[in-house]
Amino acid sequence: MNIKKLLTIAGSDSSGGAGIQADIKTFSAHKVYGMSVITAVTAQNTTGVKSVYELPVEMIRNQMESVFTDMPPDAIKTGMLSNPEIIECISEGLLRHKGSNLVVDPVMVSTSGHRLLSEDALSALKDHLFPLARVITPNIYEAEILSGGKISNKKDMVDAAMEISNKLDGWVVIKGGHLKECCDDLLYSKDEKLWLKARKINNKNTHGTGCTLSSAIASNLALGIGVKKSVFKAKRYVNSAIREGLDLGEGRGPLLHHF
Ligand SMILES: Nc1ncnc2c1ncn2[C@@H]1O[C@H](COP(=O)(O)OP(=O)(O)O)[C@@H](O)[C@H]1O
Ligand SMILES: Cc1ncc(COP(=O)(O)OP(=O)(O)O)c(N)n1
């Protein structure tokens, strides 16, 4: 059986809703083979992140070497990267092994408010990782940090995407999940601007939506689908996973992945 191989480089979420666990579930749902490089272990559940343990850079490098020298992935997705040393190690490994179809989810702070990327890691992210990416997927808050402007509406999203894509060759997806009125996402490159429209689903259980979207995009790219169609299909996947209305835990519960 010829199966596509997907790698997630991200943090572990003990509650299984976000991070590595959400990524692998999404990969399986797309019938691709999932592999992982774990950057950090979080103790978290539906009510929030309790603590974080960052793995030593050497261990991260060893995980990358093990994967790339034996089963080179057809696409890669990055999530929680914690600090500049980890970002530099990952960028160096991706460059050396010519990692392609890279989707960067620039995870900074969990929706529950816990910092998942140190403040001094921003320039490493922009200078080392973004140039390797085919698609980056900031949420509204991350797009504000990356563009330096406030985002309150769809016009602000376009301005931010323009600013962010100045320093990129690839595509930017600004996720609108935290907008008040709707959940439209913006897919933007230097030559094109497309809206992915969606009504806000009235469901508090949206833990891991960002991880799921970026993993679904990476799965589609690995399957040989172009960027635009990959993002549209991924948006549909997340939408239906939220719509399932799984209700686990006391706080913001996870999504239901379709196998
Ligand atoms: N309540 C919702 N209804 C419909 N789509 C949603 C909802 N919340 C998030 N999304 C979608 O989920 C994806 C992830 O977005 P978002 O929640 O903004 O990312 P993050 O988890 O990184 O903060 C986007 O496609 C967004 O539009
Ligand atoms: C280990 C880990 N990685 C990433 C996140 C953030 O996940 P995201 O999909 O952005 O979802 P929420 O923060 O909105 O739940 C995380 N919480 N943990």
TrEMBL record:
InterPro entries: HMP/HMP-P_kinase_dom, PM/HMP-P_kinase-1, Ribokinase-like
Membrane-traversing stretches: none
Sequence ranges assigned to domain Pyridoxamine kinase/Phosphomethylpyrimidine kinase in this UniProt record: 13-255
Entry keyword annotation includes Nucleotide-binding: yes
GO biological process, any: thiamine biosynthetic process
UniProt pathway annotation: Cofactor biosynthesis; thiamine diphosphate biosynthesis; 4-amino-2-methyl-5-diphosphomethylpyrimidine from 5-amino-1-(5-phospho-D-ribosyl)imidazole: step 2/3; Cofactor biosynthesis; thiamine diphosphate biosynthesis; 4-amino-2-methyl-5-diphosphomethylpyrimidine from 5-amino-1-(5-phospho-D-ribosyl)imidazole: step 3/3
The EC number(s) this enzyme carries: 2.7.1.49, 2.7.4.7
GO cellular component: cytosol
Top-level taxon in the UniProt lineage: Bacteria
MF term (GO), any: phosphomethylpyrimidine kinase activity
Reactions listed under catalytic activity: 4-amino-5-hydroxymethyl-2-methylpyrimidine + ATP = 4-amino-2-methyl-5-(phosphooxymethyl)pyrimidine + ADP + H(+); 4-amino-2-methyl-5-(phosphooxymethyl)pyrimidine + ATP = 4-amino-2-methyl-5-(diphosphooxymethyl)pyrimidine + ADP
Alphabetically ordered keywords of this record: ATP-binding, Kinase, Nucleotide-binding, Thiamine biosynthesis, Transferase
Family classification: Belongs to the ThiD family.
NCBIfam families referenced in this protein's UniProt entry, alphabetically: HMP-P_kinase (TIGR00097)
Name of the protein this chain belongs to: Hydroxymethylpyrimidine/phosphomethylpyrimidine kinase
Source organism: Alkalibacter saccharofermentans DSM 14828
